[in-house]
Specification:
This protein is α/β, with parallel strands linked by helices and 341 residues long. The protein has 13 helices and 13 strands. It holds the Pfam family ABC_sub_bind.
Length: 341
């Protein structure tokens, strides 16, 4: 049985007149299709509607990292006909709307506006050929900081020659990141040590596969380990960090959760809550401003956060240069670290 609940915001303005109060505005019906539960991106999305007094009913469905559930969400969307669909991540979005050249109205949503959120590379994932206009009934927001900027941020913390990368070979985002890292590494004379997560008998990544991959990677003596933007790796970032810290190797993450919650040392990231708000702004343009979906540009935040986990820094004995204290957000200080230990 699908995990389901309805979050209804009854936000309305009243005005008194000789005729009495005006009727309540009918809320927009928004179906939210998630992959790994509610994140700060969804909180930001819904908070935007509340703060801007836009009446909305949020019908939330969570695949719980099970791709097989997404087809059921599509069938339900056809039945309830929401005003708009919100999708989280590349996996859910590509299964809901299809990709360019493979978007079948029989199996994909083509007649309901879709706003995606937390998609690392919309062009690389073939959701669109242009960020200016998708040419389809879909638009959205990318959260990924350009990888070149991420590596520059890493090198500002510590100059390295060897970068270890653990990734999920079944995840499109991760494979795109690996390809971009390979191109960038050639320009920077950086040695990449690429190790995919070991798959189980059903060709799925597993926690055991993460530990096995980390031990293979650490045997190659990386100077830093990189975690790409990938739902599976984000969910299991604690395993990566535990193995890495035991070997005294710092971890750089492409997203904020592994740094804030799991002890990765640093990253140049987009704040998920703010990304969710930007996605909600796109939804508002479609619902309230009646803009044509395909003409709403796909964008990302124009400011990123240099995030450093000072608890991890203490554990590793690796501290940022003084210059970074002026620009970085510091989280998980020594008090939090001691409490967690």
């Amino acid at each position: 049985m699908y995990f389901r609940y309805v979050f209804l915001l009854c936000l309305f303005a009243t005005s008194l007149s000789s005729q009495g109060a005006e009727p309540i505005t009918k809320p927009y019906k928004i179906m939210m299709m998630l992959y790994r539960g509610e994140t700060d991106a969804e909180k930001g999305f819904m908070e935007y509607f509340k703060r801007h007094h836009i009446p909305a009913e949020f019908i939330i469905r969570d695949a719980q990292a099970d791709n097989a559930k997404i087809a059921g969400f599509i069938r339900e969307a056809r039945d309830i006909k929401p005003d708009l669909i919100y999708t989280f991540g590349t996996t859910v979005t590509s299964k809901v709307v299809g990709v360019i050249g493979d978007d079948d109205p029989e199996t994909h949503i083509t007649d309901i506006p879709v706003v995606f959120d937390i998609v690392a590379d919309p062009v690389g994932a073939r959701l669109t050929s242009s960020l200016k206009s998708s040419g389809r009934n879909v638009t959205g927001v990318s959260h990924l900081v350009p990888i070149a900027a991420q590596i520059q941020a890493l090198q500002s913390m510590r100059t390295i020659q060897r970068l270890g990368v653990i990734y999920n070979p079944q995840e499109k985002n991760a494979m795109l990141a690996v390809q971009e890292l390979q191109t960038l590494a050639q320009k920077l004379a950086l040695t990449l040590q690429l190790v995919p997560v070991v798959l189980d008998a059903n060709q799925h990544p597993s926690t055991e596969g993460v530990v096995a991959a980390m031990r293979d990677l650490l045997a190659q003596k990386p100077q830093f380990i990189y975690i790409p933007s990938d739902s599976f790796m984000i969910k299991n970032a604690n395993l990566v960090v535990q193995e890495a810290q035991a070997a005294h190797v710092p971890v750089f993450a492409a997203t904020e959760a592994p740094i804030r919650n799991d002890g990765a040392l640093l990253g140049l990231v987009s704040n998920y809550f703010n990304v969710g708000e930007l996605a909600a702004y796109k939804a508002e343009q479609i619902l309230s401003k009646k803009m044509v979906v395909s003409q709403v540009p796909i964008e990302s935040l124009n400011r990123f956060t240099y995030l450093i986990n000072m608890g991890a820094a203490k554990k590793l004995g690796i501290y940022p240069p003084v210059s970074l204290f002026k620009v970085a957000e510091l989280v998980n200080g020594t008090d939090n670290l001691d409490a967690r230990e």
